């Protein structure tokens, strides 16, 4: 067993979900991640927890989705009952082929997701963590060898999260007392928004592993300006590239994309909230030093910000503030490594990816 | 996808558990059987059933068992809740290494099994089937190439079960109206027992796939004589070979084994019922033409009988008859292919593996 896998399991059990004796645990993971599950089961046994492993097989799921009548999807009672009784969910992503469900019609996926909304909410009400095992498919997506990708993932995952929390707390303090945030990058991005009265969250790998961002919610009506997302994003199983959004009074008033624009248009038409921002996130994990086309990592990168269209997180909404509502939450990344700055109430807090306190 | 896998899935869904719309299904299978699960998910989707896949990883299980305190084992609420709400269990055996849990102390395994007795009973109260996927470990155990083992398994599994049921019904009729059964083989086995008032079951692949046996329960006190089991059996993770049992008034009064006799002794000491027979089974599946050291197949072989020490099945107990009770149920096989006969009320019904109606 690779000692980095044992370390990964230890971070999950001791830091992210803090397993206690008697915890009923669901591990959801594809089999390519078996070594990590074996390492987890060792620690769960030691702590007197009760694990069960749900096989996350994208091939089996695809087979089911393709054969089903989407109108018959439901929240099955045996899965919901287990979700209700479980205390902890450990969700491990790992693919040998990231396109395994790529030919499932988007509306079938949507119907399946909607039918299982209650189960997802049961899970969200538990202690849960989402993490990554470095399998070949995600390595290929990242344009890396599996060996290099393993190093990348385990460096990002097994770090000193208390130190990271403290570093991020500086940005939390800045954002919590801030009113106006302005994000500028090259000639293409210049956008301002208010975060007045909102609450900033410090993500230090409790629910995402790796963690490494601080995030808050913009005041819905306050967003003004233009933003260009130079990294592709996945929506409805397809890659959307070169997205440009123009905001006025918080709403997208113009949009375009260099590839699959019609997918972007469809996303924006989901509901009124899909045209407004629900999140402003600032990536602060310096061990994530390259894009891997995997949002779990990309949004944590040290010289990025991300904005999400759609639903705002409950935790970010201050008393008396409006929470943007939507069925979607779509993260999009702005590269801030060059010719870029984040300005908070007129003061530069990040320039070309370097934070004020790092200069 | 190998068309034999699709046929295997069809037999499970259409014949063994007869999937209906809305059925909540648990598939329990190790990853090496993924193709069969993919084929099942296709058919389950078509029929509007709701599957979930429990990963049967013997490596993860071993890791958990080795790290746990056996006194803390429980029936976890999230697993029990799912078992309660499930309508159907499809349990697929498949190992790349049949010894994967071989170094778990027997008492730990026993404690784990006992703690989960309620969950097992929930499963037994549903529609369920146990079947085999031909993975390399079981092929090795069978002393066959994986290719040859695949042919062996799929020939045994995908047969005309209605025809098999009708053939077996002949033996059911003989046993149902029988009083004394006598089993003779070579110089080593000559045992008699009464099945008077007991009910014979016809196993045509509803709960075991392959099926292919008829079985009943001996009247507990009626067993007399000596039996030698020339095929090894697994008990407490160890192989016991050359078992010889002598019965008087239904009870084992003398026993020996050529290998691991102390394991046999321990099994017999489990409880009083462990010294009595709970089952007489007659193998009738002609497509199983060799021993593979896998009870799911061996006990169905056309020229074998098996006797089980321990608990008798509820279905076999006629009104007013005594049911042998025990925590164990240990099947042991007698090869009836040579110099052997089954005699029912003085009439030979099988000689050297050939049934009366086959002569």
Which key terms come to mind for this protein?
homodimer, 359 residues, alpha+beta, eight-stranded antiparallel sheet, five-stranded parallel sheet
What does this protein look like?
The structure is a homodimer of 359-residue chains. Helices cover 31% and strands 28% of the residues of chain A. The longest helix of chain A has 16 residues. The first copy, chain A, starts with a helix and ends with a strand. The mean pLDDT of chain A is 94.
Mean pLDDT of chain A: 94
* Count of runs of 4 or more consecutive helical residues of chain A: 11
Of all chain pairs, the largest interface belongs to: A-B, 48 and 48 residues
Alpha-beta classification of chain A? alpha+beta
Short description:
Chain A is α+β, with helices and mostly antiparallel strands and 359 residues long. Chain A contains 11 helices and 20 strands.
């Amino acid at each position: 067993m690779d000692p980095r896998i044992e370390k990964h399991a230890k971070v999950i059990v001791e830091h992210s979900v803090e397993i206690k004796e008697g915890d009923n645990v669901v591990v959801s993971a594809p089999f390519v991640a078996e070594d990590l599950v074996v390492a987890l089961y060792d620690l769960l046994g030691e702590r007197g927890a009760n694990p069960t492993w749900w096989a996350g097989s994208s091939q089996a799921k695809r087979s089911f989705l393709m054969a089903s009548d989407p109108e018959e999807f439901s929240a099955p009672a045996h899965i919901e009952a287990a979700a209700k009784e479980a205390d902890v969910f450990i969700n491990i992503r790992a693919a040998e082929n990231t396109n395994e469900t790529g030919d499932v019609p988007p509306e079938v996926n949507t119907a399946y997701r909607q039918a299982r909304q209650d189960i997802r909410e049961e899970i969200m009400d538990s202690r849960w963590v989402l993490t990554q095992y470095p399998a070949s498919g995600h390595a290929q997506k990242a344009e890396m060898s599996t060996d290099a990708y393993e190093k990348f993932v385990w460096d990002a995952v097994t770090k000193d999260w208390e130190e990271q929390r403290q570093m991020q707390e500086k940005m939390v303090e800045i954002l919590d007392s801030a009113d106006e945030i302005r994000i500028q990058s090259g000639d293409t991005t210049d956008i301002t928004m208010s975060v007045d009265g909102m609450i900033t969250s410090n993500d230090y790998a409790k629910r995402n592993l790796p963690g490494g961002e601080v995030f808050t919610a913009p005041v819905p009506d306050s967003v003004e300006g233009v933003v260009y997302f130079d990294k592709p994003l996945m929506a409805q199983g397809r890659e959307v590239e070169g997205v440009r959004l123009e905001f006025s009074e918080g709403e997208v008033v113009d949009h375009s994309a260099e590839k699959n624009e019609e997918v972007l248009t469809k996303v924006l038409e989901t509901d009124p909230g899909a045209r407004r921002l629900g999140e402003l996130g600032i990536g602060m994990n310096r061990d994530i030093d390259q894009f891997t086309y995997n949002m779990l990592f990309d949004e944590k990168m040290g010289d990025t910000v991300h904005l999400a269209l759609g639903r705002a997180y409950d935790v970010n909404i201050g008393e008396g503030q409006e929470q943007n509502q939507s069925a979607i939450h779509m993260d999009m990344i702005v590269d801030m490594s060059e010719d870029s700055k984040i300005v908070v109430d007129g003061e530069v807090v990040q320039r070309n990816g370097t934070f004020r306190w790092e200069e």
